[in-house]
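User: Quick sanity check before I run a bigger batch. Here is a single chain. Can you write out its predicted 3D structure?
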Amino acid sequence: MKTIKDSVHDHIEVGGVARDLLDTPAVQRLRHIVQLGTSSLVYPSANHTRFEHSLGVYHLACEALDHLGVAGRNAKRVKAAALLHDVGHGPFSHNLEPLTHRRTGKYHDDVHELFERGAVGAVLKEHDLSPARVADLVAGDGKYGQVVSGELDVDRMDYLVRDAHHTGVPYGTIDHGRLVRELTFDQDDDLVLDEGNVQTAESLLVARALMIPTVYNHHVTRISKTMLRRAAERLLESTDVDAEELRRMDDPGFLVALRETPETESFARRFDERDLPKRALWAELDDTPDGLLDLAHEDVRGYELEIAERAGVPEADVVLDVPGEPEMTESSTRVLVNGDARVLHEQSPLVDALRAANRAQWRLGVYAPEEDTEAVGTAAANVLGLDLDGALVSEVRSGLQETLGSFAGEDA
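Assistant: Done. Predicted structure follows.
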């Protein structure tokens, strides 16, 4: 048994298969991948890593398994999956995943091949565990996969608390102890919250709804993420590095590759110096045509070229950033009410307010060098068919407060 001091959960005891997995290269690599990607450019203390998050997920998984009465080989599999759930991440966490997925067809939780070979597979087999079964749990398959990856998973519980702790933002604070203690399986083997926990489930949604605009979708984070994705594309196009190799890099290795490649050196310098593009356009969902919400990568590049031509700037200076249509998967969390497992959004009127706030916070972004923002913003509005009433960049951040204020019966 190994005891590790953690900034969020205090002391974490790691034993059994997890203890042997801890020192494998795949897990130790997570020390060099930051949890929040480029968010440290906004919150300087947000330098926590996927390694410490994985330890936290393992810790909460152990508590959940004890509470649920899960033991034996099933518990060993879940504990292994909890510690290993992030080893498929590429550099800067989720930032480059859209690019590598287009070229490999794999997301970060597609880890079957990774688990079958090398030290991870050897450790799992030494503990009489099937690498394929553990990989299935990472993907959220089966009854116990819900503990690691589902609507009430311990992954979500840890990252909300940990991200709030390291950014200094109080909004992600949740009672993860109660959430773990109130987990149960219903008659259909779905992981649900036990009787009397509608407000407990609501608290998870409120925390995430507040963290999304404040941390995860902060405009500086989004701008820097798009810059690194553009740099990664250029790296793949101009060197022998392929998408599989890129997926296995860590953050420092990726930045070194950028610095050592003439075609990408400027991206690395600008990231190091926080010399970022600026917002030329920042459009709300209601001002954005539906056809722009599900653009293929090639269509995005086509729009960037057209905007650049109309604005009279180099194509490389225009970045179109279109997030996916806002969704709140947690609203389908199931809670026992009078013995029946009910979907949260059918039981809680607060969920409707949170959904509305989620849509109000959505923004389409177009970024360009500071001196070109006016020309690029005007061109983008015309090319994309946006109705912005003359406001190319909106700093409005009141959507959540107004929605919740109306819900509470306050004057908006």
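Strands lie at 2-6, 10-14, 183-185, 191-193, 278-284, 319-321, 334-337, 340-343, 363-368.

User: Great, the batch can go ahead then.
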